[in-house]
Amino acid sequence: MTHEVLGEKENVKLANMFDYNIEPDKYDLIISVATIHRGLKKDINRLIGLIYKSLLPGGWIFITIPSLESRTTWHTFKEDREVGPGTYTPMTGPEKGLPHSFYSQEEVKEVFSDFKNLKINLDKKGRWLIEGEKCFT
């Protein structure tokens, strides 16, 4: 789908985000919308640390993560199973068995505590909208 939108000449990689070797000090901006929460919290939290390291000093993130309260409003989670604190897998639908992690505001603040100029807002869909900047060292 990405090649359909961007064209075949673009450098697009398909990879497991938890196994991908993200180069340190390389990116000015990293965006993750409705993606990074699909996994266990320990893996997501480790990935956020790697994302921080991969930013150039002064680089920014824009990441969305669902709020803990929003889980009860997602139609795919009417039947689910808890697989860890704040992590659930839907029992039906296209993402059946895929862990989804939901975060409280306190957890978001803790996980993104390395970032400065941190902005955390809740949108109408129940997603935390997180912006932050890597500190100059």
The counted number of beta strands is 7
What top-tier CATH class fits best? Alpha Beta
Give Rg in angstroms.
Answer: 16 Å
CATH superfamily annotation: Vaccinia Virus protein VP39
Question: What is the overall silhouette?
Answer: globular
Q: How many H/I helices?
A: 3
Question: Stretches where pLDDT falls below 50 for ≥5 residues?
Answer: none
CATH architect. name? 3-Layer(aba) Sandwich
CATH topology: Rossmann fold
Oligomeric state, counting identical vs distinct chains: single chain
Residues in helix, %: 10-25%
Overall pLDDT level? 93
Q: How does the helix and strand content classify structurally? A: alpha+beta
- SSE pattern: HEHEEEEHEE
Strands side by side in the biggest sheet: 1-2-7-6
Biggest beta sheet attributes: 4 strands, mixed
Attribute tags:
single chain; 137 residues; alpha+beta; Rossmann fold; 4-stranded mixed sheet; 3-stranded antiparallel sheet; 19% helix; globular
Describe it for me?
This protein is α+β, with helices and mostly antiparallel strands and 137 residues long. The protein has a single domain (22-133), classed as Rossmann fold (3-Layer(aba) Sandwich). The chain has 3 helices and 7 strands; from the N terminus they run αβαββββαββ. The longest helix has 14 residues, at 41-54. The radius of gyration is 16 Å and the shape is globular. It starts with a helix and ends with a strand. The relative contact order is 0.18. The mean pLDDT is 93.
What's the gist of this structure?
By secondary structure, the chain is an alpha+beta fold. Helix content is 19%, strand content 31%. It is globular, with a radius of gyration of 16 Å.
